[in-house]
Specification:
two-stranded antiparallel sheet; Trp Operon Repressor, Chain A; Alpha/beta knot; 2 domains; alpha/beta; five-stranded parallel sheet; elongated
Length: 222
């Protein structure tokens, strides 16, 4: 899987991808990462990438020409998708990640300032956001895409069966989990998990997953 990220802060993206599971996947070349510094495609001697919005308004928006030129410089694979981060985009979720996991390449344009010239949408496939809140830029959203898709790429996780029992599988959050010690500060591990009765443990976990979903994410309950 190839990730290309167009951003004003390439070091922000690269630094995250040096650590943990994603860092290991990068070193083992399970995933590839290329960052493109949007400033290099800025206009004029000051490398301008943003300007005031036609019709008035507060703040600056990214200009279409630098974005278009930066995108042109990225070699495209046969199976690729182009995303742009935006507070008005479609919410990124696990289903979205699953749909993109079989692509050869994901190109992400990081939004910044008050947004971008709407004409850039002529060259992208999806506008995406992380949720109903505003960030100062799209880099965190880009990293969420890289992380959530990368872990679905074959060989990135050591035990791929972990993908079968996690949040959002089957429309539920993941069940509660515990580890040693059996008791801490008077808080005890549920007896059922220590019983060794696997069928009963499975049933308990299914019930707990449903209850946790109803409590924390009622929007997922159908």
């Amino acid at each position: 899987m190839q990730f290309d990220v167009i951003t004003l802060f390439p070091d922000f993206i690269k630094s995250y991808c040096q650590f943990g599971i994603i860092g290991r996947a990068y070193k083992e070349e399970k995933i590839k990462l290329n960052t493109v510094d949007l400033r290099q495609f800025g206009l004029g001697k000051h490398k301008q990438v943003d300007d005031l919005s036609y019709g008035g308004g507060v703040g600056l928006i990214l200009m279409v020409e630098p974005l278009f030129n930066a995108l042109k410089k990225i070699p495209k694979k046969e199976k690729s998708k182009i995303l742009i981060t935006s507070a008005s985009g479609k919410k990124w979720d696990q289903d979205f990640a699953n749909k993109l996991k079989n692509e050869e390449q994901i190109i992400i344009i990081c939004g910044r300032y008050e947004g971008y010239d709407e004409r850039v949408l002529n060259i992208i496939d999806h506008e995406i956001c992380l949720g109903d809140f505003i960030l100062t830029g799209g880099e965190l959203c880009a990293l969420a895409v890289i992380d959530s898709v990368s872990r679905l790429v074959q060989g990135v996780l050591r035990k791929e069966e972990t993908l079968e029992e996690e949040s959002f599988k089957g429309g539920c959050l993941e069940y509660p989990q515990y580890t040693r010690p059996n008791e801490f500060n008077s808080w005890k591990v549920p007896d059922i998990l220590l019983s060794g009765h696997h069928a009963e443990i499975k049933k308990w976990r299914e019930e707990q997953a449903k209850e946790k979903t109803r409590k924390n994410r009622p929007d997922l309950v159908k």
